[in-house]
Amino acid sequence: MLYDEIIKIVTLAGELMLQAQDEELTVFDKEGTANFVTKHDKEIQFYLIQNLRQLIPEATFLAEEDGMQQELGDGYCFIIDPIDGTTNFIFDYKHSCISVGLTKFGRMLFGCVYNPYTREMYSAVKGEGAKLNGKEIHCSDKGLADNLVAFGTARYQTEDTDRIFDHAKKLYLNSLGIRAGGSAALDICRVASGANGVYLELMLYPWDYAAASLIVMEAGGFISTAEGGMITLDQPCSILAAGRQCWKEASQLLSE
After folding, report:
1. Known binding positions for Mg(2+)
2. Which pTM does this prediction carry?
């Protein structure tokens, strides 16, 4: 089956991440403060594109590195982040992942997010629910007061610094506590599994959240912009992902 083959390719790409633990990292700076890319980001992206193209030769690719920002179009398009959480990866934080989503007509069909350090594979097929290592997962059905909240920041995007920490404080004061993991895709997936009640970030690119967006929705959650609007798959936007009750409470707090 197509989706099983994608999962196999992503799992093997995870081995390339693990091999980096025994190698000297080559790190390059991108635009902005603490905006890094490594040779492994590029190598894993090349591996993914090369192998995914064999599955769907006509597919286009929207990927983070090396200018692979093609349009979604009406056909198949893979949305790829070869290493989400590159700074974590550089510092051996072991909270990084490979994220691959598949769209058609601009809509998500399939998504998988893989943390090779923990061997956690989150996946979802449109209309078939969300899974973690093959077992069904569901978002928390409780409110903020009974949940943890996660949020994300980026040092190369400082224009929203005050606003994100103001929002984080509101969520912190109305929840069990707050976390910042450094990988949007993984932290959104942890909303899908019920480990986090909410995930908030004020500016992300589609490859950061595309696959995870389907996973959280198929787990019974909701994902929108921080302002409550529809997310986009062809341009950056803010992200508020949560279980249904948490989303209602969080969106109300953020609007105050």
Report:
1. 64, 81, 83-84, 208
2. 0.93
